[in-house]
Every structure is written in structure tokens, then in C-alpha cells.
Amino acid sequence: NAGVTQTPKFRVLKTGQSMTLLCAQDMNHEYMYWYRQDPGMGLRLIHYSVGEGTTAKGEVPDGYNVSRLKKQNFLLGLESAAPSQTSVYFCASTRTGTYEQYFGPGTRLTVT
Amino acid sequence: QQQVKQSPQSLIVQKGGISIINCAYENTAFDYFPWYQQFPGKGPALLIAIRPDVSEKKEGRFTISFNKSAKQFSLHIMDSQPGDSATYFCAAAGGGTGNQFYFGTGTSLTVIP
Is B49 in contact with A104 (Cβ distance < 8 A)? Predict the structure, then answer.
């Protein structure tokens, strides 16, 4: 039982490049989330999903897209990276009927 | 508008002392209030959580105090240890938010031996 895993752990992009972050969970959780963490700002919700095939916007969705084609995977895409997207990205999941949220180890993204 | 406000930003406590972190929330529909602990380079981990129908919850050295009328809740760490040095986040979820979580800005706790 690996819990929540994230790929990659680190990435450096140039402005305008695109990339996809992968989140996978093996706990059969319905809900999945993508957050960004910036110094002094806590965790801010980018997008989330309440089940396979569904996605919804969070607090800071601009510049990001997501997809949930399989229940266990939640992908976060940056179509045209900007320096303002330099951050640590965390994926999380929760089981339906609970609020217990499990986080992945994070992806540190730098956009130059 | 920030849904959850957390203070202090940083805290230094002597070993054996009590660490207290405070949070205030806006949305009275929230019905779940967790605290997360995060070590450098790691993801946040759920530490303890409370529902608004109780005023206090204790798990080992960690206690949440909840004041519904004031829309405030706090984390108390008794007998603080150097291993408790981490960043702590409060959050709120539920009610009409559709399972969205709103986090405080975090408190960096340092416990001095």
C-alpha cells in the first residue's frame, strides 16, 4: 500500500514549456486534490475531483488543467509555464464519507 | 477573502513547554477542522481533527480546543519535544464547500532542547 505517490519529485521548466504532474493513489479514494504550497501562503487548492471523469476548480485554477480518466490517477497540466507557477505541488485524496485527507510527498517545480 | 486565518507565523518553545497555535474561520457551514503536521521535504500529515459538535478533542499530547461562537479553534501541544519541530497547518472543510479544504498559512514551531 503505497498511499499517494507523485511523479516527478523535481522539475525545472523554462517559461512557456508545458508539463504534466501525475498523482496516483492505491486506496480506492473517490476524492482527489491538487494544491500548491508557497511560503507564507499555506496550501491553496488548484483543482479537485469528486470521482472518475469529474473535475472542479479550486481557489487558484488559472493556468492549470486537470484530468481524472482513471479513479486512481489525477493529472495536473501546465500548458504554458510561467515563473509565478514556481511552487511545491501536493496531491491529496480522501475517501467518500470521510474528511481524512492523505497527501503525497510533493513535486518541487521551478520555472525560469 | 481568506477563509482560515492562522497565528502565530512562528513559535519557539522550550522542551517540556506548551505550544499553542490559533486559527479563526469565516464560514459557519464548515463542519470539519483538522490540523496537519509537515516536516521539511514531506507532505502534510493529518495530526488531529475535530467536528463542531464538541468543544475539545485530545489525542496523546495534542489537544484541539474549539469555540463555535467565536469561530475559533486552537492546537495545544503539551510537553513539547524537539521532535515536534515542524510546520503546523489548520484547515476547515465541509458544509456547503463540496469537500473543499481551506488551509491556514502555517506556523513554524521550533522546540528548543
Answer: no
